[in-house]
């Protein structure tokens, strides 16, 4: 569609019905390099010249959307690591799941500490899930306005805390 | 397609001219021949065959990522309502794949240089494969994911 629009802006050609040739593509030019190549050239040039990296996260003013975005990535990495640790211990540690639970039970942790531990497990999960829904809304094209971003962000934070708190006392 | 032709005249002479110009000058581009053939766009035929190039495979991957995320969201309540072996293995697959794709994006963002990227991708692949193997082992030889969560939470 973009090709058609580009050709139309460069002047209209009236072609009779007897010559249905493909004139609308005359002004289309193929891309020279891909985005990946461009990025690679950028990094190669800068590492070769040994240029220092400009200060970015140390000087830029933090905002709630920025913090929520990196937290989404952080919770994702944490959850993935947790799952991998769980899987690796299933493969390589001796004893089955019940024996490991018995080990925890033998520590005789108080109910408050147990709830705190459950909250610590549940919160990354609820945050990543709710913020994930927010991401999917963006992918559908909705909610990009700045007030909407803040509103949905605060909603995600509130829901994450509430849901994790409810799960912690179950 | 008629809208496109109208847009073309906008770009040529500005918005006002479109509103003021006589409608006779702006004709639909479809079908200038009087035969029974289906209407053609003047000058070309739009082909609707699928495009196979690097960018379309990337956008397909993007769509797959979002579909998997959506499916995984649905699996959370489903696992609560219908725990069992089918749910266990579905969760194992969906969780490891979602994690693998997510961590690949982290590698793409932060790891630079051909050798480092290759090493990181290989290490990630090994981690994801081992994770999936471990979860399947747990599902088969031990209580399974759904039951394990229930047991852990009843502590």
From TrEMBL, chain A:
Keyword Heme assigned to the entry: answer is yes
- A GO CC term attached to the entry: membrane
Taxonomy, superkingdom: Eukaryota
- Look up and give the membrane topology term: Multi-pass membrane protein
- In which broad location class does this protein mainly occur, judging by the first location in its UniProt entry? membrane
Q: Where are the transmembrane segments?
A: 76-95, 107-128, 149-169
Annotated PROSITE patterns: SDH_CYT_1, SDH_CYT_2
**One of this protein's GO BP terms?**
tricarboxylic acid cycle
Q: Which GO terms describe its molecular function?
A: electron transfer activity; metal ion binding
Please provide the record's keywords in A-Z order. Heme, Iron, Membrane, Metal-binding, Transmembrane, Transmembrane helix
Q: How does it assemble?
A: Component of complex II composed of four subunits: the flavoprotein (FP) SDHA, iron-sulfur protein (IP) SDHB, and a cytochrome b560 composed of SDHC and SDHD.
> What role does it play?
Membrane-anchoring subunit of succinate dehydrogenase (SDH) that is involved in complex II of the mitochondrial electron transport chain and is responsible for transferring electrons from succinate to ubiquinone (coenzyme Q). SDH also oxidizes malate to the non-canonical enol form of oxaloacetate, enol-oxaloacetate. Enol-oxaloacetate, which is a potent inhibitor of the succinate dehydrogenase activity, is further isomerized into keto-oxaloacetate.
Q: What is this protein called?
A: Succinate dehydrogenase cytochrome b560 subunit, mitochondrial
Q: Which organism is it from?
A: Erpetoichthys calabaricus (Rope fish)
TrEMBL record, chain B:
Q: Name one Pfam family in it.
A: CybS
Q: How does this protein sit in the membrane?
A: Multi-pass membrane protein
UniProt entry keywords in alphabetical sequence: Electron transport, Heme, Iron, Membrane, Metal-binding, Mitochondrion, Mitochondrion inner membrane, Transit peptide, Transmembrane, Transmembrane helix, Transport, Tricarboxylic acid cycle
Lineage, top-rank taxon, reads Eukaryota
- Pathway, per record: Carbohydrate metabolism; tricarboxylic acid cycle
InterPro entries recorded: CybS (IPR007992), SQR/QFR_C/D (IPR034804)
Q: Which GO terms describe its molecular function?
A: heme binding; metal ion binding; ubiquinone binding
Entry binding sites for heme b: 98
| Gene Ontology CC terms, in alphabetical order | mitochondrial inner membrane
Describe, as the record does, how this protein assembles with itself and its partners.
Component of complex II composed of four subunits: the flavoprotein (FP) SDHA, iron-sulfur protein (IP) SDHB, and a cytochrome b560 composed of SDHC and SDHD.
Q: Could you identify this protein by its name?
A: Succinate dehydrogenase [ubiquinone] cytochrome b small subunit
Task: Record the organism.
Answer: Erpetoichthys calabaricus
């Amino acid at each position: 569609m973009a090709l058609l629009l580009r050709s139309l802006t460069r002047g209209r050609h009236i072609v009779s019905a007897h010559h249905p040739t493909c004139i609308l593509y005359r002004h289309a030019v193929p891309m020279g390099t891909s985005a990946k190549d461009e990025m690679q050239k950028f990094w190669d040039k800068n590492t070769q010249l040994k240029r220092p990296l400009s200060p970015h996260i140390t000087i830029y003013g933090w905002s709630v959307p920025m913090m929520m975005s990196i937290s989404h990535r952080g919770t994702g990495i944490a959850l993935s690591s947790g799952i991998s640790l769980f899987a690796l211990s299933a493969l390589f540690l001796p004893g089955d799941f019940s024996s490991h639970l018995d080990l925890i039970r033998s520590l005789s942790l108080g109910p408050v500490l147990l709830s705190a531990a459950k909250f610590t497990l549940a919160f990354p999960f609820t945050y990543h899930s709710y913020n994930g829904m927010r991401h999917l809304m963006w992918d559908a094209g909705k909610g990009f306005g700045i007030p909407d971003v803040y509103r949905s962000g605060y909603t995600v934070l509130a829901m994450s805390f509430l849901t994790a708190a409810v799960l912690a006392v179950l | 397609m008629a809208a496109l032709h109208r847009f073309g005249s906008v770009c040529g002479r500005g918005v006002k001219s479109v509103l003021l110009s006589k409608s006779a000058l702006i004709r639909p581009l479809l079908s200038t021949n009087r035969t029974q053939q289906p209407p053609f766009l003047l000058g070309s035929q739009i082909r609707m065959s699928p495009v196979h190039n690097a960018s379309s495979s990337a956008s397909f991957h993007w769509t797959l990522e979002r579909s998997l995320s959506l499916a995984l969201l649905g699996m959370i309540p489903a696992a609560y309502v219908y725990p069992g072996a089918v749910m266990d293995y579905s969760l194992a697959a969906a969780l490891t794949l979602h994690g693998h794709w997510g961590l690949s994006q982290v590698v793409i963002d932060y790891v630079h240089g051909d050798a480092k990227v290759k090493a990181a991708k290989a290490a990630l692949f090994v981690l994801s494969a081992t994770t999936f193997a471990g979860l399947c082992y747990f599902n088969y030889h031990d209580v399974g994911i759904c039951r394990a969560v229930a047991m852990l939470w009843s502590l």
